[in-house]
């Protein structure tokens, strides 16, 4: 007799494998999940009957008999992915097959508090509901700062003073009556790279996230690293001693800080409305400021590489506007900072996911956490 909870988990895993195209037939589903063909067929039949999978066409392999192809049913339901920072709330709607079918954004006023943030999140989810095929199945939220995924609580965010011990998952579940999954926004972005970006074939990679602050997300052996206190990757709080006592890394290497350095503006200079465009406009690889920023980024990547020994880093946030030249210059400077890393340098790649990355990652959280009844 199969345990009902184990069966639910296996059915959910079968859907993930079909959605990601790791499994395209009953036979490959059995292989990927290490099941007998009979058991894999049982799961496929149950999911087809429930309206989550469909079986159609003939898929001819290189050898043997042709087999029928498995696929997900896009209209079976959808997932909401929400991500926010100090300036805005971003959201996407992703159908059951993992395709984005809608998006939206709501700006946050200067001095926004927790109440406003939660209100805008709820309003955006309602907006995404309009015209959505099928029922809302789950909500994923990528929150900045320190979060506790197990409790569904936003613990702390430096740029929103009253964001402390916020019961995010409970509030959203009470409003929408669906499972809610919470994670740090950079770790959500790591999932976005897995499902929608350049990490689909990688089991070890980093997300470099210089945005309002600075942090990294780490995927090691296919698993996202959160840490005992859910604060792994908060490198923006590293001391930056050559900038004076009490200085932190994000004071120099966040996206706003880099724009001010490249522009030659004061630390109090007002940020432009379009930070990406402003960064692109002042990018000058021959300038002293460019070389100093490159050196500092090389120092950070060198320290991270000495700790984690990865192969690939994805740059996210407004600094992607500096392009591949910036990434190449940073990697080329690493051996000057840490000569011992010569021969095992990571590759730094500007992500192609854009501003939707955090919300896409949050939707990925919901997809991976969802299980059929």
Short description:
The chain is α/β, with parallel strands linked by helices and 373 residues long. It has 12 helices and 15 strands.
Main sheet summary: 5 strands, mixed
Strand order of the largest sheet: 5-4-3-6-10
How many separate domains? 3
Q: What is the percent of helical residues?
A: 25-40%
Strand content: 15-25%
Radius of gyration: 22 Å
Strand segment count:
15
CATH architecture of the largest domain: 2-Layer Sandwich
> What best-fitting shape do the alpha-carbon axes yield?
globular
The CATH H-level superfamily of the largest domain is: ATPase, nucleotide binding domain
Our count of helices gives: 12
CATH topology of the largest domain: Nucleotidyltransferase, domain 5
* CATH level 1 class label of the largest domain: Alpha Beta
Average of pLDDT: 91
Structural class: alpha/beta
Can you characterise this structure?
- The protein has about 375 residues and is α/β, with parallel strands linked by helices.
- The protein has three domains: about 5-70, Winged helix-like DNA-binding domain superfamily/Winged helix DNA-binding domain (Arc Repressor Mutant, subunit A, Orthogonal Bundle); about 75-190 and about 355-370, ATPase, nucleotide binding domain (Nucleotidyltransferase, domain 5); about 200-350, Nucleotidyltransferase, domain 5, CATH 3.30.420.
- Helix content is about 40%, strand content about 20%.
- It has helices at about 5-20, 25-35, 35-50, 115-130, 170-175, 185-195, 250-255, 255-265, 275-280, 290-310, 325-335, 355-370; strands spanning about 55-60, 65-70, 80-85, 90-95, 100-105, 135-145, 145-150, 155, 165, 180-185, 205-210, 215-220, 225, 310-315, 345-350.
- The strands form four sheets. The protein has a five-stranded mixed sheet. Strands 13-12-11-14-15 form a five-stranded mixed sheet. Strands 7-8-9 form a three-stranded antiparallel sheet.
- Helix 10 (about 290-310) packs across helix 11.
- The longest helix is centred in the last third of the chain and has 21 residues, at about 290-310.
- It is globular, with a radius of gyration of 22 Å.
- The model has no long low-confidence stretch (mean pLDDT about 90).
């Amino acid at each position: 007799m199969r345990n009902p909870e184990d069966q639910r988990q296996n059915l959910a895993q079968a859907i993930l494998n079909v959605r990601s195209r790791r499994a395209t037939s009953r036979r490959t589903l059995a292989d990927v999940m290490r099941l007998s063909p009979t058991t894999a067929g049982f799961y496929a039949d149950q999911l087809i009957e429930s309206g989550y999978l469909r079986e159609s066409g003939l898929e001819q392999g290189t050898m043997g008999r042709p087999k029928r192809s498995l696929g997900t049913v896009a209209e079976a339901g959808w997932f909401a992915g929400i991500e926010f920072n100090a300036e805005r709330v971003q959201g996407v709607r992703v159908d059951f097959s993992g395709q984005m079918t809608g998006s939206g954004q709501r700006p946050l006023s200067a001095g926004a508090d927790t109440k406003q943030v939660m209100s805008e999140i709820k309003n955006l989810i309602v907006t995404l509901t309009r015209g959505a095929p099928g029922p809302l199945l789950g909500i994923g939220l990528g929150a900045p700062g320190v979060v506790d995924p197990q409790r569904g609580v936003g613990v702390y965010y430096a740029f929103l003073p009253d964001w402390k011990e916020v019961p995010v998952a409970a509030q959203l579940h009470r409003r929408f009556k669906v499972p809610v999954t919470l994670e740090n926004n950079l770790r959500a972005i790591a999932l976005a790279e897995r499902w929608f970006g350049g990490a689909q074939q990688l089991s070890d990679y980093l997300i470099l996230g210089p945005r309002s602050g600075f942090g990294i997300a780490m995927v090691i052996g296919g698993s996202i690293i959160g840490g005992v206190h859910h604060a792994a990757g908060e490198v923006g709080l590293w001391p930056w001693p050559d900038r004076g006592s009490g200085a932190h890394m994000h004071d120099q290497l966040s996206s706003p800080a880099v724009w001010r350095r490249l522009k030659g503006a004061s630390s109090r200079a007002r940020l432009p409305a379009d930070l990406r465009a402003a960064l692109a406009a002042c990018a000058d690889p021959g300038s002293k400021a460019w070389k100093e920023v490159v050196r500092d980024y090389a120092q950070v990547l060198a320290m991270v590489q000495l700790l984690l020994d990865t192969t690939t880093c994805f740059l996210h946030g407004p600094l992607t506007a500096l392009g591949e030249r910036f990434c190449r210059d940073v990697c080329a400077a690493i051996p000057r900072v840490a000569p011992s890393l010569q021969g095992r340098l990571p590759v730094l790649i500007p992500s192609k996911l854009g501003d939707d990355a955090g919300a896409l990652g949050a939707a990925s959280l919901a997809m991976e956490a969802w299980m059929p009844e």
